[in-house]
Amino acid sequence: VALLGYGTAVQSCLAAASLVEPHGLGLTVADARFCKPLDRALIRSLAKSHEVLITVEEGSIGGFGSHVAQFMALDGLLDGTIKWRPLVLPDRYIEHGSPSDQLAQAGLTPSHIAATIFNILGQTREALQIMS
């Protein structure tokens, strides 16, 4: 499993990794550093060496994850067995509150990221444990 974080989401990815690793899953966390130009070599390497790739950002539709998806599609990286998911802010209003409260509403906390990993891998029980 590879987490490709963009911006401040990298810290949430690192925290999610600490929640997942005790369950015996190997996890790679990569920092995208910038959205444009895309680090194509990094994305290609992650996609070819992992069965799951999750992009995580505090952006919405049309952001970093969309750029990654287009690159992967054009490069043929989505033609194999990789499972790719973008974790982004929802396309709706999020109530005012602390940043941690807003990330919880958006489903972008380390626990949400970890639960997404388990759900993709079909480990629903572990996902429920992480979220409880």
Would you write up a description of this structure?
- One of its GO terms (biological process) is terpenoid biosynthetic process.
- One of its GO terms (molecular function) is metal ion binding.
- Its EC number is 2.2.1.7.
- Keywords: Isoprene biosynthesis, Magnesium, Metal-binding, Thiamine biosynthesis, Thiamine pyrophosphate, Transferase.
- One of its GO terms (cellular component) is chloroplast.
- The chain has 132 residues and is α/β, with parallel strands linked by helices.
- The model has no long low-confidence stretch (mean pLDDT 94).
- Helix 1 packs across helix 5 and helix 5 packs antiparallel against helix 6.
- The protein is globular.
- The protein has 6 helices and 4 strands, in the order βαβαβαβααα.
- Strands 2-1-3-4 form a 4-stranded parallel beta sheet, sandwiched between helices.
- The protein has a single domain, classed as 3-Layer(aba) Sandwich (Rossmann fold), CATH 3.40.50.
- Helix 3 links the parallel strand 3 and strand 4.
CA distance, first residue to last residue? 22 Å
Weakly predicted, low-confidence segments: none
Taken together, the total number of domains comes to 1
Strand order of the largest sheet: 2-1-3-4
Alpha-carbon Rg, integer? 14 Å
Query: DSSP strand (E) fraction?
Result: 5-15%
What is the correct CATH architecture? Answer: 3-Layer(aba) Sandwich
> What is the level 1 CATH name?
Alpha Beta
Major pleated sheet? 4 strands, parallel
What shape does the CA trace take? globular
CATH fold-level assignment: Rossmann fold
Structural class, by secondary structure, is alpha/beta
The succession of helices and strands, N to C, reads: EHEHEHEHHH
How helix-rich are the residues, as a percent range?
Answer: 40-55%
The count of helical stretches stands at 6
Number of strands: 4
GO cellular component, one term: chloroplast
Keywords: Isoprene biosynthesis, Magnesium, Metal-binding, Thiamine biosynthesis, Thiamine pyrophosphate, Transferase
Cofactor: Mg(2+)
EC number: 2.2.1.7
